[in-house]
Structure formats: structure tokens, C-alpha cells
Amino acid sequence: MTATVLSPRLSHRLRLRRRADRWINLLLLMPGCGFLLLAMMLPICQLALASFGLFGIGAVGQFTIQNYAEISQNLLFTSAFRFSLQIAAVTTLISVAVATLFTAVLQIDFPGRRLVGALYKVPLVVPSLIAAFLVLTMIGPGGMAARVLQPFGVRWPSFLHDPSGFGIILVLLWHNIPITILIVSAVAAAVPRDVIEAARTLGANPWRVFRRIMVPLCAPGIAAAALLVFIDAFGTYAIPSLIGPAFPRAISVMMTSEFLLHANWGTASALGVVMIVTTALILVLYHLLVDRGAARPDS
Amino acid sequence: MAWLELRSVAKRFGVVTAIERIDLEVGHGEFLTVLGASGCGKSTTLRIIAGLERPDEGEVILTGRPIQDMPVHRREIAMVFQSYALFPHMTVAQNVAFGLETRGVPTVEIVRRVREALKTVELSGLDERYPRQLSGGQQQRVALARALVTEPKVLLLDEPLSNLDAKLRDRLRVELRALQQKLQVTTIYVTHDQSEAMSLSDRIAFMAGGRIVEIGTPEEIYRRPRARSTAEFLGIANMLDGKVVAAGQGILSIESNLGRLDLEDAAALSVGDDVVVCLRPEDIRLVVPEAGAPNGLPGTIRHSAYLGSITDYIIEPAGSDVSLRIHVPGPTTWRIGDIASIQLPRFGAVIRRRPIAHSVPR
Prior knowledge:
The complex is a heterodimer. In chain A, about 75% of the residues lie in helices and about 0% in strands. By secondary structure, chain A is mostly helical. Chain A folds into 2 domains: about 45 residues; about 220 residues, MetI-like (MetI-like fold, Orthogonal Bundle). Chain A starts with a helix and ends with a helix. In chain B, the strands form 4 sheets. In chain B, strands 6-7-8-3-9-10 form a 6-stranded mixed beta sheet, with helices on both faces. In chain B, strands 13-12-11-14-20 form a 5-stranded antiparallel beta sheet. Chain B has a 5-stranded antiparallel beta sheet with strand order 15-19-16-17-18, with no helix packed on it. The longest helix of chain B has 18 residues. In chain B, helix 2 packs across helix 3, helix 2 packs parallel to helix 4 and helix 3 packs across helix 4. Chains A and B meet through helix 10 and helix 11 of A and strand 6, helix 2 and helix 4 of B.
């Protein structure tokens, strides 16, 4: 409308100005978007291409699905995938359950609450590698627990290098439970006091308040915490490589050995892609759950 | 026998005394309002009755049984909060059903009672809405329905109307009173709004500084307050210092700084008592100056404000340093600077002045 009123020369200048604006906008977006592009998309693309035998170091430079065929058929890789998934799932479930109950307990005013509220944060400042060493010295074979029980003729089960992944889960829990508590208790603190008190005056005992009020209102926070724990546990490397069993091995451990020991970049890349896709699927699942929960009251 | 009773209940928060040994009796089906400024301890009193706070001293007795050690969820005392405190993740119907579910009422009966309760508060048809899809007034009704559906022994209301606009507040006030009368539920209502207290209550307990200053019907509290703080909190009060100079034949003569007042004798006072006379602005009249009228004295209009149904004047009586607030029905007839004759009423609350103020907030 305005262009028809303006003279042709003026409208031309306006068009030029608009084009310049677009470039300035793009330029201003560069630091942020450029970083995303360079630091995130590029390596992921490189990884994906290498997994198909393209542009990879030492690859044939020809499209192939050989790497995927290899990791889907070789028991070493399939068991690694299952092992990591299992560790991540168990760690997530236990972390979330313990953290939610712990948060509920922290709502009650009992003597020593502040001390407990401070103590649970200790593992946050201790690197989980140190926790892995704790497992070695405390409950490993020849560890403190085993030595204390030995005179009584009790054989201490080995949690070190055990194929069930119990030791790994223990260390992951040590690190992830406090993080989960931190997130869940922050969400719990945002639940209005009045709402809880209203439920109490309507005859709900503390357990019912927890189940019917606290848990549903904290669900988005619990889901977010579960997501973080799962991603962390699924990709964990240091702990399984230190105290994990020789078989099955965690997927990240497999990947590293393919890279570093066998220089098998194609297989390692394919494993990496599988890890990313798995985590991405979990992320999508999380969004589906949370968005549906959030959208429900408006329907 | 009182339905609910507080016996010398006290509560401190650290060094701050919230409630100082209060006694209170509420009859069955009674609507009692606890009135007071913020921080006077009225909400704490309510929370102690609900069980959300533990009293440091004293007893709470419900139908003859001490309940101060009983957990909140066993008391059968429902509470409506200022924020309504609806459960955001539940529908209206689920909110109202909550209290019935906790009591193990069969599902069929829950459905029936929820429908009935929503009908009572005129919210039929909104069962499946979520709280955030409702207006403030509707949310308020859901909160009320949720509390009433459980048929509580006592209904507690903590400033339930203060988040609503003036018109809606006025309407809900009328509805709330009608509902309470119909259901005959013992109700304790906390507010800082004196007109709310006046229009709703059977009795008002006025609180200040963690004590109950006095309890009485709205009329008693307004017309015959026994404490200066009560008189001042409930509406506009003209306070005149004076001394009783004669008493007898139902007439109390008081020498005040506006001259001699002859008032109908209601308080038990004797000659020589130091008193404060409380005159309500609507009891004082302004007339065209005329000699010989009783209690009449000339005064100058200093301020006038037209409020619609009344005109609010501030008038300065001649030869005096006090000023009086006077409400005259109808439009403004006096202008600033006019000389009018003030007709002091033959009725006024006479409050004995105590050596130590009764209700100084600590």
C-alpha cells in the first residue's frame, strides 16, 4: 500500500535498505547460531557420515551400511547396547523414586532436617570417579566389607566387574540421586503451601497429600530429572570402564575401544549415532509426556 | 454448651507473640467473624482451630473433646483460603470430590453430592473445567463447594472475598450468608473488612495485638463498643474526652471538651469517671443555627465530600481545637466556611478510660 504512494526512486532505496537490514540481522545472529552450527551440527554430521563410510578418517569413501550391520549382529555390540540401556533405566527409576520420597520427607519438620538437607548434597561435590574408587575399596573383592565378614565365614558377593552392573548402578545412584533431589525439591518448593494445607483440611493424610497433590504437581520436574539422569547414565564412561565387567561392556566403553584400540572409526561412529538417536528418542518421549500433561487442562 | 471453644490459647513465633491467651466460644450454627487489622493474630487463631498451627498453650475443644493434638486431617474442619488453594491439576468436579474420597464415601454418593454441591454454589455445568479456566468468583465458589460438600463440623474462611472486585464481593457476601443460614454450618470468618464483618456475622470478635478486645453482635460492637480501639476500627468515630459529672434517671451527663453532653445511660459509670465518648458521624446532625436547641453548638464547615448516598463533612466547633466528622444523607447542602449548628446526639458509646490502654499492640 505504501509503495504505491512512494516515488519509484524512494521505493527502490527502501528495498535496498531492507536488504541491508536482513544481512545485519543475519550477522547479529551469527555468534549464537554460528556456534550451534559449528560446534554442534558439524561434528554430528561428520559422525553420521562416517558411520555410513563417507568422509571418515580411514574410510573407503563409499556409502555403506556395513558398520550398522556389524553392530546389529555382533553380540559384543548388541549386549553393550542392552547393558547401557538397562543400567540407565534402573538408575533412573531408583533415582527418581528415592529422590521423590526424600523430597516428601524433607517437607516434614523433624529435628535434624536442615542437617539432612545439607548432607545429601555431599555427593554433588565429589566426582563420581572418586565414588568408583570408594566402591573398589569398600565393597570390592578384598574391600572393607569383604574383610570384615571374612572371619565369620561369610563370602562377600563381588560387586566389582559383575555382569549385572550392580556396582556401576551404585556409583551412578550415588551421584544422580542428589541431583534428582535438587531438581525435584525445587519443583516441590513451588507447590503453594495453601494447596497442601487445603488438602489436609479436606481429610487427606500426609501420604495421600503426597500421592494426590505433590507427585502430580511435581511431575514435570520429576520427568525432567529422569531425563537428565537417563542421559547421564546411558552415556557414562569412566565408571563402567573402571569397575565394569569385561562382558557385557557399556556402549561408551565399546565405542572408545573401537576408536582407540582398533582404530575402527566406522563402527565407533555408528555406535555414536545409535547413542544419539536413543537419547533423542527419550527426549522426544519426554516432550510428548510433558506437553500432553501441560496441554490437558486447556482441552 | 459451646460447639467450639478456645481456652487460653497462646501462640508465639520465636520472640513474636502472635496470640496472647485468648478465650473464645462459638455456638452450633453460629457465624462468628474474627475482625482485626493485619498482624493482629486473627489468621493464626484460625490456623490453630484448623490444626495447621500448634498452640503453645491452651486447649481447643470441639463438641466437648480437646482436639489440639489431633492431626489436621482427622478434625473434620474445612477451610477456605484467601487464594482459594484449588488443586490446579484436577477438574472442578475432582476438586469438590477430593474431601469425599479421603473419607471413603462410595463413588455413587460422591457423584451425587458433588453435583448437589455445585448446584448449591450455582456452578452446574462447569464440572469438567480446570481451575485456571475459571474466573476469580467461580474459583471462590469451587473452594466453598469443596469445603461444604464434606459437611464439616466447622467451616473456616480466611479472607475469602478479598481477592475479588468490589461488586462481586458484595454479591458473594449476600450469597455466603444465605448459604450459611440454609446449611446451619458453624462458621468462623476472618477479615479485616468491617463492613464484611457487620453484614455477615451473628457475632464479631474484634482482635488487636494478639488479644480478643471484645465480642458482641454487630450492633453491640458498632453502637456500644467497650474499647476505644474497637470504636475506632469499626467505621468513623468522633472521640471526645470527658468526665462524668452527673448520673441518674437513665441520663449520663458528661463534661467534655465540647461542653456538657447529656447521653442516654447504658454503661455502668459513676460520677467522676474519666471517659471517652464515641459519636458516630451519622448520629450527629447539622441544622440551621437556632437558639435554645439541646446539645447544639455552632461550628464552621472545613471540608465536604459528596459520596453519593451521603455527604461527608468535617466541621470545627467554635472555640474548640477538635473537629468532627459528620455524615448527612443526600447531596451537599453546606459549603466550606458556612456556620452550622451541630446537634450532638443523645446517644453515644461511653467508654471508661483506663489507666493503661486495654489493647496496645506489643
